[in-house]
Design a protein that fits this description.
Layout: E1 3-6, E2 9-12, E3 18-20, H1 25-40, H2 58-67, E4 75-79, H3 85-92, E5 96-101, H4 104-117, E6 123-127, E7 140-143, H5 147-160, E8 166-170, E9 181-187, H6 191-194, H7 200-212, E10 222-230, E11 237-243, E12 246-255, E13 258-265, E14 268-269, E15 271-278, E16 281-287, E17 294-302, E18 305-314, E19 317-326
Parallel strand pairs: 1-3, 4-5, 4-7, 5-6, 7-8
Antiparallel strand pairs: 1-2, 8-10, 9-10, 11-12, 12-13, 13-14, 15-16, 16-17, 17-18, 18-19
Length: 327
């Protein structure tokens, strides 16, 4: 009896060995179809919508909510909520939430799961197109969608969500909108919890075949990627401020959370050592190439103003001043 390998996990097959090197949804779908054919003689069912429903394992849900620091006061929207597990888990942490899905059967299941969990008064589940969902009030948005859908949602996120709102995705990123953080989680749950529900008979069959190979420990199936973003403030443009009687100007070009900055003090261009935009927070390290004075700017963007602090290190020592810039 051979094995099938999926991102480091061993699954039972017939007489040959096959290895998948990608953890993408397409290969998971292929593997799922193969397993269902093996155990049930039935091909995997794909819903008539943009993405098939594949449940997120409980430990991955926990990691997603941990990375977004979900708690009381948060409003969580799950786009493509399936059986509601992410929104329900958020409600158990004190948040309120909304789950949307195009599948009426899953929405009914999500509502039933919320009742069983005792959080019906904190959550709502709606059958609707995720692209027609108003997400403007969300502090956290969660997703498990194909990359093509993720990329279509990028302008929705930047237009509707407030700067600093958190986005967490299971397995898929947003191309050139690079994540602020990324981690992996290994799931070693039985197939029914990791992929799609199997019957007790199918799980028993799988377990017996697994034991025949001498595999007596839990079976790790997949490594799951979890990506985290904070919606960046609009930083592009020209900013000006005064410091110690000198006029400073800063030009910012921006693509999502990636920025290019140029700072000028009178007739001297500062050397930019590092820059970072995370949510509303802008941090820049710079140096005057003539005087070797070093600057650390740290501020919060609020519309056309930046308010924060500037640390200055020069021949006369170190000092901290207020930083207030206008666009």
């Amino acid at each position: 009896m051979g094995i099938i390998k999926i991102t480091g996990a061993k699954l039972l097959t017939g007489s040959s060995s096959i290895t998948f090197f990608s953890s993408g949804m397409m290969l998971r779908s292929i593997a799922l179809a193969f397993l269902l054919l093996l155990f049930t003689g039935t091909p995997a069912q794909t819903q008539e919508k943009d993405a098939p429903y594949v449940p997120t394992p409980a430990n991955v849900v926990d990691k997603m909510l941990d990375m977004a620091n979900v708690g009381p006061g948060d409003y969580v929207i799950d786009l493509g909520c399936g059986d509601g597990r992410i929104v329900i888990a958020a409600a158990r942490r004190g948040a309120t939430g909304l789950g949307v899905d195009i599948d009426a059967k899953l929405i009914r299941k999500a509502r039933g799961n919320a009742r069983e969990a005792g959080v019906s008064d904190q959550v709502m589940f709606l059958r609707q197109d995720l692209f027609k969902t108003d997400i403007s009030g969300a502090s956290v948005v969660t997703l498990y969608l194909y990359p093509s859908l993720m990329n279509k949602l990028r302008p929705v996120f930047t237009e509707q969500l407030d700067p600093g709102a958190r986005i967490v995705s299971h397995d898929f990123d947003m191309d050139d909108w690079k994540s602020d953080r990324h981690t992996t989680v290994e799931s070693n749950k039985i197939l029914s919890d990791t992929l799609v529900p199997l019957s007790e008979k199918e799980i028993k069959t799988f377990s017996l075949l697994h034991k025949k190979l001498g595999q007596n420990r839990p079976l790790p199936l997949f490594r799951h990627d979890v990506y985290y973003w904070e919606v960046p403030a609009e930083a592009r443009g020209r900013w000006k401020w005064q410091a110690k009687g000198k006029a400073f100007s800063m030009t910012v070009d921006q693509s999502f959370n990636k920025i290019h900055t140029e700072i000028q003090v009178e007739n001297t261009a500062l050397t930019i050592k590092s820059k970072k935009l995370k949510g509303e927070r802008l941090t820049i390290r710079a140096e005057n190439p003539e005087t070797k004075t070093r600057y650390l700017y740290s501020g919060r963007i609020d519309g056309d103003t930046i308010e924060g602090k500037i640390q200055i290190r020069g021949d006369d020592g170190k000092r901290v001043d207020k930083w207030s810039a206008e666009r």
